[in-house]
């Protein structure tokens, strides 16, 4: 039920079109079902001698046309009626096709956009852990499974039901025993189809497994091509693949063999049913119990009814797949998002930052930061140093609320961090992440990602500060160069520098560089820092780095270890203290000794 | 190097391509002929059913007599049974052909993948190759067998119906069949249009997949740049495009079937009108009239299938084209005919003729450029004597991997030559070199299967004792024994059930077992805990002993231990010597050392600091 509710949720706003589609199917079926009746009346009463047995309301029309004998003169009218009915049927079929596509596509659009938006707003942590391939699979092929179901099979089920209802109505009005004969096999065929598709599921699964195993061998062979070649194991690999390839072939063949029983038996049932209708019909017609026209109608209906029912088993299996797809999509949408809380506090931020006894642990319970306290005045530069895994990155992530601290408080300009509107905060606290991601857009677009209205001069300026302007101009297309998958491949240092440019373009009062210059060489590192300093005296800056030289110029240095501040002070103070900082400094100086 | 681009394919019918496909159909010639016969049978019987109705009406219903109906029933039952049996056999045969052809093409494809050079793998994403080998081949096999089934069935039935109606009443038949040319014209027009619109839909669809991919990989950047709304807006442009183009495509294709139906109904209407007049005039029997009205419906039934097959054939052709581009790619690095005659090929080596390798390697004026013209090495010279350990140091893209790949003959020099034991390696067989090569990758690659199978990959004929000895030598034995099933533990896909460090140890054991003369180590930067790190270092030293080795080095300890360090920058050796000599030069190595390797030291410091 819940899945259906989810589906209805996605279908919202398109219900009318869906209903229109279903009505169109109904009308199309109605016209399909009454066409054989025209044949019957023509054969029995216009060509033959049976009295006209058509509904009372229609009799005056026939009369006004000159009655039965007149119609016999104008048989083309009957032919035309068939064409007109079919045209109506065609019209409604077309409307069904168009409307169901419109509804299904609108639903798919809804799903895609909701998924996309939801994914964007997932917590930072969720993105760290995300399995991208699986998520993409869900957002694309699962959405498509649902779309196809809505566009075609959903309607197909409606078609089968309408067909049954309409045809049954007319058949019963014509002859009850013939109706019974005509319908006898329907439950049998339906039951058989249903039963078979349950039975065959296991074989389907085996095929899937065989294919998965074969794909694994293939994939491993290709990803490990260097290993295969280096050991000269081509022959061995071919033999290995051959076994999986033939197992796969055999399992598919086994499935088809099973299907061959299905198709032949269900065809047999359909043909037998048609045969019984014909023979009993002929028998009764020869006895005068039913007319020739009625016989023709029943043989047509037998054909119309049986074949779609045979497909129903398949449709029901596909419906199962649709529900699985819905499940998988629901799993994504059930993940919590950030927008759950909305604060409207959006003040001007000056840049004073205070940490007071801040502690933070990941959900897993692993404690990362313990009792962190420090204060930074507006415009100061603060450097954070420490071994890998000491909590440096977590500390700055807290400041933009990629994670939330559990104890203590962080204040910006004296206001608790959690009071700020999250997006406003992120707009004001610029952070350059450790591993920058560039979008497959032009360099220019990448730099003005967060400031769309930026003028060219601003973009150039930002690139200049990041020491990237000249390098960009060296590209054939300059700032219009496409980066990413479809464009040029940039080096790690170039990526970092573009990431810096796109962050500083915003003139944030607080800037964070999370080891953002690691792939840049020392001189460039120095030049960028100098340019940054010149640009603005009032920006509060956090720098995480491994380089003593980078760190040494900061107004204040924090040395972190195991989630605690073990030392803090200026470079000159710290090198005189026993401790980690001194040792790292000594290590970097020890190079000199090594050379001696 | 990222030059790979999906080629665009024509949608015209490509006869040459289908001729190539015939090669794969050939082994199934008999089955295919049988299948064709079955389909002719099924189509004919299908066309005969309305004729049975006609017979019953004319002989039993109209005269109101049941004389001889037993025979009629018997014949009807016989037809049904015959049809059932043929359908059963037909599906079976088609399945045999389908699976057989898929198997054959896959086999050829896989063989070719084993021969293709690395340059091919560099330019072709594995995902692309995977879809060629799985879905494209499946699609092709499917269309080849079932497409044929539906085609022959449809054609037979239409032909049989035409024959029957002509036989029943040729004048009426000709009038009714006059709608067929219109049908043909409409079909061709629509299919072209439908194909075109669906291609557009597919293109947009791949853009959407790309957008999801980028949205997810760039999610962190999006968050800190507060780009969520703008990204969604951009995405909505795509989904909007997708919606409108899909609806357009669906609209056009849902216009087609109604038109076919209406054309058919014109035939039915004509049959009713003219046939009815014939009945009134006494020139046509009732049964014939009924048969005509059924046939005009039945005749159009295969059209839907034929239209579908037409579209499927188009996409199968595209699949076939992609598969054949792969299968027909010639490997760039192969042995000459003479060499193969002497030493055997990759699949059938003649090991007895192989000379023993000592392990001296020399690069003589070697230049190398990628296909796209990107030069990596120029006039490179290097002499490595037997047993020497060379560490290659430099930034990503500096050319160190290329040097190693050239030494392994994964690539061949575009100019100059590489000598092994004083002889150009192109004068020896590829497999000879590779059989003497040990290779441990930065990211260790294991195959699904047990640990035992993975170690034995190094030397297939090795016994358990040798295998365990190799594991012991690299200190892998201990952790393997601790696993539940010991050496028979399944490592999972790509070795996924083991940790990176464990995978590395197994790949070392595998290399040791191969007992190579030349050893290549593409060192890992990935972090493992200190204890494993030390075990791995130990393993490395064991492996390197007495072998000529190249190390693409990242770890300071490995670099320090090397006999010679080559600092590579832009395809040239800019500095050469051991660690101390290089530091003294105060050049590039010095800077690299301070930038990159200091981190490693700091990390260690961090660990010791914990003890304070």
Gist?
Chain A has 596 residues and is α/β, with parallel strands linked by helices. Chain A has 23 helices and 10 strands.
Explain the overall architecture.
- The complex is a heterodimer of chains A (596) and B (612).
- Chain A has a domain at 353-591: Rossmann fold (3-Layer(aba) Sandwich), CATH 3.40.50.300.
- Chain A is 65% helix and 10% strand.
- Chain A contains 23 helices and ten strands.
- Chain A has helices at residues 2-11, 15-47, 59-64, 67-73, 76-120, 124-129, 132-174, 176-183, 185-199, 201-223, 225-230, 234-286, 292-333, 392-399, 422-428, 443-447, 456-465, 469-474, 492-504, 522-535, 548-552, 571-576, 580-595, and strands at residues 353-361, 367-376, 381-385, 407-412, 415-416, 429-432, 510-514, 540-544, 556-561, 564-569.
- A six-stranded mixed beta sheet of chain A has the order 6-7-8-3-9-10, sandwiched between helices. In chain A, strands 2-1-4-5 form a four-stranded antiparallel beta sheet, with helices on one face.
- The mean pLDDT of chain A is 85.
- Chain B is of the alpha/beta class and 612 residues long.
- Chain B folds into three domains: 15-169, ABC transporter type 1, transmembrane domain (ABC transporter transmembrane region fold, Up-down Bundle), CATH 1.20.1560; 170-283; 387-400 and 435-610, P-loop containing nucleotide triphosphate hydrolases (Rossmann fold).
- Chain B starts with 14 loop residues before the first helix and ends with a helix.
- Mean pLDDT of chain B is 84; it is low at 1-9 and 606-612.
- The chains are: A alpha/beta (596), B alpha/beta (612).
- At the A-B interface, helix 2, helix 5, helix 6, helix 7 and helix 10 of A face helix 2, helix 3, helix 5, helix 7 and helix 8 of B.
């Amino acid at each position: 039920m819940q899945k259906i509710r989810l589906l209805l949720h996605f279908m919202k706003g398109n219900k009318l079109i869906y209903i229109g589609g279903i009505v169109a199917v109904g009308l199309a079926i109605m016209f399909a079902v009454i066409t054989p009746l025209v044949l019957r009346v023509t054969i029995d009463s216009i060509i033959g001698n049976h009295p006209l047995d058509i509904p009372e309301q229609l009799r005056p029309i026939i009369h006004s046309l000159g009655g039965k004998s007149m119609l016999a003169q104008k048989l083309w009218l009957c032919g035309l009626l068939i064409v007109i009915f079919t045209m109506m049927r065609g019209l409604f079929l077309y409307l069904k096709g168009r409307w169901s596509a419109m509804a299904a596509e609108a639903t798919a659009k809804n799903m895609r956009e909701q998924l996309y938006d939801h994914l964007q707003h997932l917590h930072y942590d969720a993105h760290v852990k995300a399995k991208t391939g699986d998520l993409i699979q869900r957002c694309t092929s699962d959405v498509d499974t649902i779309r196809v179901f809505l566009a075609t099979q959903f309607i197909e089920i409606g078609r089968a039901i309408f067909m049954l209802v309409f045809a049954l109505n007319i058949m019963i009005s014509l002859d009850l025993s013939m109706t019974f004969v005509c319908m006898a096999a329907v439950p049998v065929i339906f039951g058989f189809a249903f039963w078979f598709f349950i039975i065959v599921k296991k074989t389907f699964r085996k095929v899937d497994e065989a294919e998965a195993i074969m794909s694994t061998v293939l994939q491993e062979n290709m990803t490990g091509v260097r290993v295969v070649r280096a050991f000269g194991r081509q022959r061995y690999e071919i033999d290995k693949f051959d076994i999986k390839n033939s197992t796969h072939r055999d399992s598919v063949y086994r499935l088809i063999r099973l299907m061959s029983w299905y198709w032949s038996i269900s065809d047999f049932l359909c043909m037998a049913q048609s045969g019984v209708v014909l023979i009993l019909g002929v028998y009764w017609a020869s006895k005068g119990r039913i007319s020739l026209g009625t016989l023709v109608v029943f043989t047509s209906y037998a054909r119309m009814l049986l074949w779609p029912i045979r497909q129903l088993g398949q449709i029901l299996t596909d419906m199962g797949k649709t529900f699985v797809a819905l499940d998988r999509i629901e799993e994504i949408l059930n993940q919590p998002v950030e927008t759950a809380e909305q604060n409207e506090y959006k003040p001007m931020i000056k840049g004073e930052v205070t940490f007071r006894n801040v502690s933070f642990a990941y959900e897993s319970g692993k404690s990362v930061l313990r009792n962190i306290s420090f204060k930074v005045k507006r415009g100061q530069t603060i450097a954070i140093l420490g071994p890998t895994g000491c909590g440096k990155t977590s500390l700055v992530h807290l400041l933009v609320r990629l994670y939330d601290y559990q104890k203590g408080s962080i204040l910006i300009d004296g206001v608790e961090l959690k009071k700020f509107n999250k997006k406003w905060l992120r707009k004001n606290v610029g952070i350059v992440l450790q591993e920058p991601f560039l979008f497959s857009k032009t360099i220019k677009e990448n730099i003005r990602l967060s400031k769309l209205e930026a003028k060219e001069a601003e973009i150039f300026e930002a690139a200049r500060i990041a020491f990237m302007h000249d390098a960009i101009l060296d590209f054939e297309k300059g700032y219009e160069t496409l980066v990413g998958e479809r464009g040029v491949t940039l080096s790690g240092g170039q990526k970092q520098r573009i990431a810096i440019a796109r962050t500083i373009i915003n003139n944030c009062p607080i800037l964070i560089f999370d080891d953002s210059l690691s792939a840049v060489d020392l001189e460039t590192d120095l030049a960028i820092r100098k340019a940054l300093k010149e640009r603005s005296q009032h920006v509060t800056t956090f720098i995480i780095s491994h380089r003593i030289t980078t760190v040494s110029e900061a107004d204040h240095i924090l040395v972190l270890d195991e989630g605690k501040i073990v030392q803090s002070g200026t470079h000159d103070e710290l090198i005189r203290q026993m401790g980690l900082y001194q040792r790292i400094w000594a290590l970097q100086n020890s190079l000199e000794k090594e050379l001696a | 190097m990222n030059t790979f681009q999906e080629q665009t394919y024509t949608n015209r019918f490509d006869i040459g391509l289908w001729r190539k496909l015939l090669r794969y159909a050939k082994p199934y010639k008999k089955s295919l002929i049988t299948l064709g016969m079955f389909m002719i049978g099924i189509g004919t019987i299908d066309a005969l059913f309305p004729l049975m109705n006609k017979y019953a009406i004319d002989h039993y219903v109209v005269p109101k007599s049941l004389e001889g109906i037993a025979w009629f029933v018997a014949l009807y039952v016989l037809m049904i049974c015959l049809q059932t049996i043929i359908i059963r056999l037909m599906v079976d045969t088609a399945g045999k052909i389908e699976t057989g052809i898929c198997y054959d093409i896959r086999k050829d494809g896989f063989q070719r993948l084993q021969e293709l050079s690395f340059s091919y793998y560099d330019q072709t994403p594995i995902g692309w190759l995977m879809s060629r080998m799985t879905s494209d081949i499946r699609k092709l096999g499917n269309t080849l067998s079932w497409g044929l089934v539906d085609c022959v069935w449809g054609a037979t039935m239409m032909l049989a119906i035409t024959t029957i109606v002509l036989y029943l009443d040729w004048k009426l038949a000709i009038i009714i069949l006059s709608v067929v040319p219109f049908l043909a014209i409409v079909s061709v027009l629509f299919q072209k249009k439908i194909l075109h619109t669906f291609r557009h839909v597919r293109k947009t669809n791949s853009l959407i997949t790309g957008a999801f991919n980028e949205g997810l990989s760039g999610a962190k950047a999006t968050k800190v740049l507060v780009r969520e709304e703008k990204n969604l807006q951009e995405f909505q442009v795509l989904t909007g495009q997708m919606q409108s183009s899909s609806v357009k495509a669906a609209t056009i294709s849902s216009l087609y079937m109604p038109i076919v139906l209406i054309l058919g109904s014109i035939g039915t209407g004509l049959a009713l009108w003219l046939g009815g007049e014939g009945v009134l005039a006494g020139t046509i029997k009732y049964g014939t009239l009924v048969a005509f009205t059924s046939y005009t419906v039945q005749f159009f039934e295969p059209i839907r299938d034929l239209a579908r097959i037409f579209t499927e054939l188009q996409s199968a052709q595209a699949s076939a084209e992609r598969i054949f581009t792969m299968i027909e790619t010639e490997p760039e690095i192969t042995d000459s005919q003479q060499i193969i005659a002497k030493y055997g090929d990759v699949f059938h080596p003649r090991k007895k003729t192989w000379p023993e390798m000592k392990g001296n390697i020399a690069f003589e004026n070697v230049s190398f450029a990628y296909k796209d013209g990107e030069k990596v090495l120029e006039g490179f010279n290097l002499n490595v004597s037997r047993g020497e350990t060379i560490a290659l140091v430099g930034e990503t893209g500096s050319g160190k991997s290329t040097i190693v790949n050239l030494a392994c003959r994964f690539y061949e020099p575009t100019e100059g030559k590489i000598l092994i034991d004083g002889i150009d390696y192109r004068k020896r067989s590829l497999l000879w070199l590779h059989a003497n090569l040990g290779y441990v990758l930065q990211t260790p690659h294991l195959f699904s299967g047990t640990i035992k199978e993975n170690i034995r990959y190094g030397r297939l004929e090795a016994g358990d004792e040798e295998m365990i000895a190799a594991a012991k030598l690299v200190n892998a034995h201990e952790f393997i024994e601790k696993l539940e099933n010991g050496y028979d533990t399944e490592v999972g896909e790509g070795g996924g059930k083991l940790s990176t460090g464990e995978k590395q140890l197994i790949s070392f054991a595998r290399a040791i077992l191969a007992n190579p003369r030349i050893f290549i180590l593409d060192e890992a930067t990935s972090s493992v805990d200190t204890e494993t790190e030390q075990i791995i270092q130990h393993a490395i030293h064991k492996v390197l002993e007495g072998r000529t080795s190249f190390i693409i080095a990242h770890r300071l300890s490995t670099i320090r231990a090397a006999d010679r360090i080559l600092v590579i920058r832009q395809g040239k050796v800019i500095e050469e010597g051991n660690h101390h000599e290089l530091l003294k030069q105060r050049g590039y190595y010095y800077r690299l050392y301070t930038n990159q390797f200091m981190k490693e030291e700091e990390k260690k410091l961090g660990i010791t600091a914990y003890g304070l």
